[in-house]
Write a structure and sequence with these properties.
Strand content: under 5%
Low-confidence stretches: none
Structural class: mainly alpha
Helix content: 55-70%
Strand order of the largest sheet: 1-2
Radius of gyration: 58 Å
Shape: rod-shaped
Mean pLDDT: 82
Distance between the termini: 152 Å
Order of helices and strands: HHHHHEEH
Oligomer: single chain
Length: about 200
Amino acid sequence: MYKLDVAVDAREAAAIERRQNMEKQRQSRIFNARQRTIGMDIEALDDQIKGRNKEKKLRSNISDEDPCLSISGMQVFSGEDLQYDSRKDLQKEQITEKKRLSMEQKKGDQLYNMKAVEMDQRAFKEKAALQQQVLLKNKTITLLKWSNHIHGDMLTENPAVAQSAFGPHRVIPDRWKGMSPSQVSDILHTQALQRL
């Protein structure tokens, strides 16, 4: 149930040994017939007074709101910082926490920036691919238009488009491009016959 084989802390062992020595000294003074017959144990009383003074000093520095402290006791001073150590420790903890949060914020910002760069690169690649597709499509359309213009009836002046559906001797005026080489040769042949 009890752990008896636990190693005792060095400070605790020194404190126990000191108390035992003090007790032995006290007992030797008490049981010393010469000192006991004279009267009071001055050393023990001095030790008690020192102990009480130490208690008062410790007690006076606990808090300014202590009801045992009087105004004329010269123990409460204006501007005295009794919580200096605890305040410093709290400030150190707050600074450490702030640094930790700042580091986490920086890591979060870095991750966000990396993701944003990645998304921007992906969007840039997609936009470039889309532009490439649009450019290729426009180029293909332009080539088809040029091909239609070059090989179409407009620029080749195909007289067949001007023939009317009502007969071979009739033409559509807005599509007529002129006479065909055979028609020109027929007219020239007819003129030659007329000249004879």
